[in-house]
Design goal:
The complex is a heterodimer of chains A (302) and B (243). By secondary structure, chain A is mainly α. Helices cover 71% and strands 3% of the residues of chain A. Chain B is α/β, with parallel strands linked by helices. The N and C termini of chain B lie far apart (37 Å). The chains are: A mainly alpha (302), B alpha/beta (243).
């Protein structure tokens, strides 16, 4: 039982990270019908931005939730800026091109950021300053059950961010415009909505969430390096597809499903298949329910 | 053209051509929309009616000629800038946001409205005009019937406080009684002072409520004038009214 609970807790904290990244995929897909393969790199940039913020501001000398929030916001801002620039320079000029061109460009941007990252940050893994939160001694154990406080912090912060996003999408003017643009660009522009600005804002929001995920992952698995975005990026992509790409609730559902599946596979069967699982799920979902768990088949436009 | 005349013209299309790649959809189309009138653009499917509206709204660019709003060239403006000039369109195929509620659709219609304080009044006016929409305000627009969707599209365009209302095929695919109702409302909006450019395949009914008609055929204007004259001409009766 303890072990079962342990896996649930691990799965929730893993799933919440996947969810933060998957949301960016699904939001960008919503407005541009583009799988932004550079999204994993935006997450990586967030981790580095968080690390440098902590170093430069010497936040480790003032550990606490305040310092964590400063690092988190700095990372989110840096990632949002990265997302904005990428959309502006790489994707916007291709707005009227065939979708495959956009996709290839996204792969190109991803590789560009990975290798530029190695050039700028160095290719060796760096230690993420986890001392920003003084959590030693707070580890909670009950029998075999071990709850790391960092897992709880990550879970709580992710949930708060997801609720904020939910609020923005469904309750604000910006969110309404984002949903309008994702339904149809031309129609949205006939309402007087500046579609390009809304697309930029969507990129920035999705990227900020990935940046936050970068910091939270840094705190749980404190080794960061420029290629760290590849695997979580692909897995979050699978989570988004699993939930129904373009669907915000679906992305969160897909992410937690993937987190649980991975954790139980590793815990009760074979750990070596952890990474294979995501791709097995991807293949299955594409074969049997390409629209995803919550995806709806959208009626053809007249 | 004298000054007095041009002041009363809201929209002026001058020798406009539009190309989709190699295909020419409009060939040197010219007409005016005078203030306070209903002008109708009629013609068969594929004549270029919708393309003309898309060009006015800035969704396609004219390759030659000009579109002027009160003498200002708008042909190079972005669609959202044109909406800000209070040229609002109710698009074809009841282009409404099926993923949003009725009320959210109406809210979006007011996105660029110049006077935000008039929002409540306009909303009530829309609900007054189409009571069904009020009953269904919290429902997803995708659950509405065809006629209700068309009403929503018109009500939404009115939320933008237009000076010029562009209506693209409001009768498309609707039952005759509903078409009648929609046309009544179009006339009522016009009587209240709205300038309207109405695109219709349903030529007879459109010509009956409009002041001025423009007949398009494969991208060119073949006839235009006061609707009374058009309705009386043998040519129109034969070709468009099936007599």
């Amino acid at each position: 039982m303890d072990q079962f609970l342990q896996h649930i807790i691990n799965a929730l904290s893993l799933g919440s990270i996947y969810a933060l990244i998957a949301l960016g995929y699904t939001m960008v897909f919503g407005v541009l019908q583009l799988i932004n393969f550079a999204h994993g790199e935006i997450y990586m940039l967030g981790a580095f931005a968080g690390m440098y913020t902590i170093r430069w501001l010497r936040l480790e000398q003032h550990p606490g939730i305040g310092s964590l929030l400063i690092a988190l916001f700095a990372a989110m801002a840096a990632s949002a800026l990265a997302g904005f620039i990428i959309e502006r320079l790489a994707y916007r000029p291709l707005r009227k091109s065939p979708r495959i061109n956009l996709l290839i460009t996204a792969v190109g941007v991803s590789l560009f950021l990975q290798y530029t990252g190695q050039l700028v940050f160095g290719s060796d893994p760096q230690f993420f300053p986890v001392g920003i939160l003084e959590l030693d001694g707070y580890t909670w154990t009950y029998g075999e059950l071990v709850i790391e406080p960092m897992q709880i912090v990550a879970l709580v912060l992710s949930i708060i961010l997801m609720l904020v996003l939910q609020y923005i999408i469904f309750k604000t003017r910006l969110g309404r415009a984002m949903r309008a643009v994702s339904f149809n660009h031309d129609l949205a522009s006939l309402m007087g909505i500046p579609t390009n600005r809304i697309i930029s804002a969507t990129f920035m929001l999705g990227s900020a969430l990935a940046g936050a995920a970068g910091v939270l992952v840094g705190l749980i698995y404190p080794k960061i390096e420029p290629l760290m975005g590849t695997m979580p990026g692909l897995k979050a992509f699978v989570a988004a597809v699993l939930g129904g790409v373009g669907n915000v609730t679906g992305a969160v559902l897909g992410a937690f499903t993937l987190g649980l599946a991975e954790e139980f596979l590793v815990g009760y069967w074979v750990s070596t298949y952890r990474d294979a699982l995501a791709f097995a799920i991807l293949i299955l979902i594409l074969l049997f329910k390409p629209s995803g768990l919550l995806g709806v088949h959208r009626a053809e436009k007249v | 053209m004298t000054n007095i005349e041009s002041e009363s013209v809201v929209l002026s299309v001058k020798d406009a051509s539009v190309h989709y790649g190699m295909v020419q959809a409009l060939r040197g189309v010219s007409f005016d929309v005078p203030k306070g009138k209903i002008v109708t653009l009629v013609g068969a499917n594929g004549a270029g009616k919708t393309t003309m509206l898309r060009a006015i709204s800035g969704l396609v660019k004219v390759s030659r000629g000009a579109i002027q709003h009160h003498g200002v060239a708008i042909s190079s403006m972005q669609p959202h800038e044109i909406v800000r000039r209070r040229i609002c369109q109710s698009p074809e195929g009841r282009g409404i946001f099926l993923n949003l509620t009725v009320e959210e659709n109406l809210d979006l219609g007011a996105w660029a409205a110049p006077d935000k304080s008039a929002y409540k009044v306009n909303l009530e006016r829309g609900f007054d005009m189409f009571p069904r929409l009020k009953e269904r305000r919290r429902q997803n627009a995708g659950t509405l019937s065809g006629g209700e969707q068309q009403m929503l599209a018109i009500a939404r365009a009115l939320m933008g406080q237009p000076e010029l209302l562009l209506l693209d095929e409001p009768s498309l695919g609707l039952a005759p009684q509903i078409i009648e109702k929609i046309f009544e409302i179009v006339q009522r909006i016009n009587r209240e002072g709205m300038t309207i450019l109405l695109v219709e395949q349903n030529a007879l009914q459109a010509l009956q409520i409009a002041h001025h008609g423009v007949v398009l055929e494969t991208g060119s204007v073949v006839l235009q004038g006061p609707t009374r004259e058009l309705l009386a001409s043998d040519e129109v009766r034969k070709a468009y009214l099936g007599e």
